[in-house]
Amino acid sequence: MQAYVQKIFSVFVTILMITLGMASHAQAQVAGAQTAPEAQGAPPASAALASADAYRYIMGADDKIRVIVFGEPDLSGEFVVNGQGTVALPLIGEVKAAGLTVTQLQEQYASVLREGYLKDPRVSIEVLTFRPFYVLGEVSLPGEYPYVNGMTVMNAVARAQGFTYRANKKKVFIKSATTEQERAVELTSTLTVQPGDTIRVAERYF
């Protein structure tokens, strides 16, 4: 009799463990479904923001862009914004690019192609290489340097071989590519550089 009871108890425990295991598996599937977009490589919010910023970027001389007209390889290619702020695009020739966002140039090119060239052109433009920035003043190697996305002023100074012993390390003067006047800015580790910026490190006063 005791052996029979033990057998019944063993079967009950086995069924209970199976039931609990199935419940845990179901919960794992629900959790997996909730995180599936992230697991499949869906871009985080910060990446989406970076992409949106790229389309708001104001173009200028020396920017290199890639133009893609879908289904029209002869109208696609890589082009450079020249010193006059224009870019030579297939069929339409020189058009103004400096001062425009990527989206504005994209829409402008599509609009011209739509007027007598293509019925429904789909145009995509992206910046391949940003215009350089400049570091002047109290640095060891003043000059022009290629821009890298996310670069800080401290990174820029490091590219210029660091400060001289006379440098004012508390603030710098920055002139953007779209302004005539430079502005004094407190130098922090998070102060960023934009394409075309001129950074001037002044001499400190003793």
TrEMBL record:
Q: Where is the Polysaccharide export protein N-terminal domain?
A: 53-127
SLBB domain mapped to chain residues: 133-201
Q: Does the keyword Ubl conjugation apply?
A: no
Primary location recorded for the protein, binned into one broad class: membrane
Tell whether NADP is among the UniProt keywords.
Answer: no
Keywords from the UniProt entry: Cell outer membrane, Ion transport, Lipoprotein, Membrane, Palmitate, Polysaccharide transport, Porin, Signal, Sugar transport, Transmembrane, Transmembrane beta strand, Transport
Pfam families in alphabetical order:
Poly_export, SLBB_2
Q: Where would one find coiled-coil regions in this protein?
A: none
Q: Which domain of life is it from?
A: Bacteria
**InterPro entries tied to this protein:** Poly_export, Poly_export_N, SLBB_dom
Provide the protein's localization: Cell outer membrane
Task: Give the record's membrane topology.
Answer: Multi-pass membrane protein
Signal sequence, start to end: 1-28
Family, similarity comment: Belongs to the BexD/CtrA/VexA family.
Q: Which PANTHER family does the entry mention?
A: POLYSACCHARIDE EXPORT PROTEIN GFCE-RELATED (PTHR33619:SF3)
**Name this polypeptide is given:** Polysaccharide export protein
Q: Which organism is it from?
A: Asticcacaulis machinosus
Lineage at the top is: Bacteria, Pseudomonadati, Pseudomonadota, Alphaproteobacteria, Caulobacterales
